[in-house]
Specification:
mainly alpha
């Protein structure tokens, strides 16, 4: 009987320990859950703040990217403008070089020397030089029309206005009509256009 009483007493002690342990465990668990929920709430708040900071940083990055692209476009525009001006000047220098070629200068001098002289009395060399002078001005007119550049046209006209005027005055009397007839065409329109500008 004592062993039965001891056995019952042991069972009651164990039961009390289990109940006590379960109370301690459950209060510890709820305290831990409460701590975790508070920590989660704090983390959620920090995450929202971090999200706001990241959003502000992304806006700043977008604005900076816009300004960088704008700055690059301004630089590219300047480079294109410089390249266009360089090309423009190069075209003018090429045209000036063409006009000042020694064979064209010589041809114009020959043409000027033929003023008032009958076409049938011109030597073959004089005729070739006169034709070269007229052709060179026709080519200049073609190039100026193709360039479609008022500045280039004005530079050429100011520098060679007298030469163009005299060349056309001499050539248009007999040379150009006879060359047109001899070649069955070739109307020297650009040379005429150039002469009308001066």
């Amino acid at each position: 009987m004592t062993s039965e009483i001891e056995h019952n007493a042991r069972i009651q002690r164990n039961f009390r320990n289990i109940v006590l342990y379960s109370d301690v465990f459950s209060s510890s668990q709820s305290s831990r859950l409460l701590t975790h929920s508070i920590d989660f709430f704090d983390l959620s708040k920090e995450a929202d703040q971090m999200n706001d900071v990241l959003q502000i940083l992304s806006y700043i990055a977008i604005i900076l990217t816009f300004f960088i692209y704008w700055w690059m476009l301004v630089k590219m525009h300047k480079q294109v403008t410089i390249a266009h001006k360089a090309s423009h000047l190069n075209n003018i220098f090429t045209l000036i070089d063409y006009i000042q070629r020694p064979e064209h200068v010589k041809a114009r001098k020959t043409l000027f020397s033929l003023r008032g002289k009958e076409l049938n009395s011109w030597t073959p060399d004089e005729l070739n030089d006169a034709e070269r002078a007229a052709s060179s001005w026709d080519v200049v007119g073609i190039l100026l029309q193709q360039m479609d550049d008022e500045d280039a046209t004005q530079i050429i006209l100011k520098a060679w206005d007298q030469s163009i005027r005299d060349s056309y005055a001499i050539a248009s009397l007999e040379l150009l009509p006879s060359l047109t007839q001899a070649r069955n065409g070739g109307n020297w329109d650009r040379f005429r256009w150039l002469a009308n500008l001066v």
